[in-house]
Design a protein that fits this description.
There is one protein chain. This protein folds into two domains: 37 residues, no CATH class; 181 residues, Immunoglobulin-like, CATH 2.60.40.1190. The chain has two helices and 16 strands. The radius of gyration is 23 Å and the shape is globular.
Length: 225
């Protein structure tokens, strides 16, 4: 018998009535807490539907007005704004203030479209890195070279970005096709998701804060609205 049914069968008598009725909302709330804790562990973002974007590193008027955004604090006084949205065919991201003086941070998208939430990388989990070139890995990360052969290029199938060096303001736009991620529908799709900003040497800053590059199960979740 569930808690609501049990309470509905209680016989309320005299002075007991005020205790039972007053306690019922609290009892129901406490009963629901374990379910919420186990059912929604990942940090979520909602990616809204919007207009297509021209990937050129220029924030044209109204181009991103239908996007949502988050901030990632790279260092004291250095905050990168991330804009995101989608249409029927693509995910779109814009990163603003990727440079500070001579310092640079390169964005990486970590995508788990099957929501495998594995402890270690598996096929179908994508690492997309954009800097002076595009680098990618399916089921692996930090794929810059393989057996001495450079793996990055100015263009890659299924996604695109403008490259470093960036114009003043440090803006990079990225487009990722849903087809690359084997997502057949945009509306309502859910995927494991994280962002990191890195110098590729010793600094990585993540959203969500507890995410780890090596462990997809620590990433957040994106929901396409």
């Amino acid at each position: 018998m569930n808690l609501i049914a049990a309470c509905s069968r209680l016989r309320i008598r005299g002075g007991e009535s005020s205790f039972l009725l007053g306690s019922l909302p609290l009892i129901l709330l406490l009963a629901a807490l374990p379910l919420a804790a186990h059912g929604s562990a990942a940090v979520e973002i909602i990616i809204p539907a919007g207009r297509p974007v021209t990937v050129d590193g220029k924030l044209s008027p109204l181009e991103w007005s239908d996007a949502s955004s988050k901030f990632i604090d790279v260092a004291p006084g250095w905050r990168v704004r991330v804009l995101f949205k989608h249409d029927a065919s693509n995910l779109y991201f814009a990163f603003i203030h990727l440079t500070r003086g001579t310092e640079m941070r390169f964005p990486e998208l970590l995508l788990d479209p099957r929501e495998q939430r594995s402890n270690s990388w598996q096929p179908g989990e994508w690492w997309l890195h954009s800097s002076f070139n595009l680098c990618e890995g399916d089921g692996e990360y930090n794929v810059y070279d393989r057996n001495g052969v450079f793996q990055c290029a100015k263009t890659k199938q299924g996604w695109s970005a403008n490259h470093f060096p960036l114009a003043p303001g440090g803006v990079m736009e990225i487009q990722v096709s849903l087809a690359k991620l084997a997502l057949t529908s945009a509306h309502g799709a859910r995927l494991g998701f994280s962002i990191d900003l890195t110098d590729t040497q010793k600094n990585w800053t993540f959203w969500p804060a507890g995410a780890q590059l090596a462990h997809p199960k620590t990433w957040g979740e994106a929901i396409l609205q």
